[in-house]
Design goal:
about 260 residues, alpha/beta, Metallo-beta-lactamase, Chain A
Length: about 260
């Protein structure tokens, strides 16, 4: 039995937030959408925002930070974020919560209870973007969404993680044949855009050969992807029935483990 649990509260272009729990801590990675949506999602799985010890932000885009301003009015939770991204947040009205915004260099490590949370850079069209490796005893969890392409830093940071939350944003054919303007399609496909199903599948296969047993596919596009397409492509690449693969939802919480 794992000594932790991972639940996606919601995931996609409208908002992102993942709850990670251990015996000694509860953290959120990202706090998108709204404070009401975030609190309601926690309540729906029998949890409370009052039990959250810290929030770790990947980057400053609204779908990852939208809940913060209202949330922090009633719940003084420490928010950990890279300083470059934090400057954007503080300009957007969060300066009154400056004491709760813990600014860090791009590569940092923070201990919360029995968790050690380590950041690593990811390529995305934000001021700065990071993923996280969370170590709990002998176990490790990896989190990487909003990835233009898979860098060596991403590979090494996720290597050996028993469980990962990994972006599987779009099916390339659906994207190119879909309704988006051509310039937006190019942005999504760029090295500072989002990870495709095929790139996710390739990385998932590699990580499973290095110890990964649980995969949560996250940040799926509602217009340019389908849960079944993302799942099938990753499942075919991994080709191991012992690996637990689930797809996060934009609408309801999904527990990976």
């Amino acid at each position: 039995m794992a000594n932790y649990s991972i639940t996606s509260l919601y995931s996609g272009s409208k908002g992102n937030s993942v709850l990670i729990e251990s015996e000694g801590a509860r953290i959120l990675i990202d706090a998108g959408r709204s404070a009401r949506a975030l609190c309601n999602a926690l309540t729906s799985i029998g949890k409370s925002i009052d039990g959250i010890d810290a929030i770790f932000i990947t980057h400053e885009h609204t779908d990852h930070v939208g809940a913060l301003e209202v949330l922090l009015k009633k719940h003084p939770i420490p928010v950990h974020i890279v300083g470059i991204s934090a400057k954007k947040l503080l300009l957007k009205g969060l300066s009154v919560y400056d004491s709760l915004i813990c600014q860090h260099p791009p590569v940092f490590s923070v201990t919360v209870g029995d968790m050690t949370v380590k950041s690593f850079p990811t390529p995305h069209d934000s001021e700065y973007c990071v993923g996280y490796r969370i170590e709990i005893g002998e176990s490790a969890i990896g989190y990487a969404t909003d990835i233009g392409y898979v860098t060596s830093e991403i590979r090494e940071s996720l290597a050996g993680c028993e469980s990962i939350v990994l972006e599987s944003n779009h099916d390339e054919e659906m994207l190119m044949n879909g309704p988006y303007p051509y310039e937006l399609k190019l942005r999504i496909r760029s090295n500072r855009g989002h990870l495709s199903n095929s790139a996710c599948a390739e990385l998932s296969s590699e990580l499973c050969s290095r110890g990964t047993r649980n995969i949560l596919l996250a940040h799926l596009s509602e217009e340019n992807n389908e849960p079944s397409i993302a799942f099938d492509e990753v499942w075919s690449a991994v080709a191991d029935e012992s690996v637990n693969i689930k797809v996060a939802s934009q609408h309801v919480p999904i527990k990976l483990i």
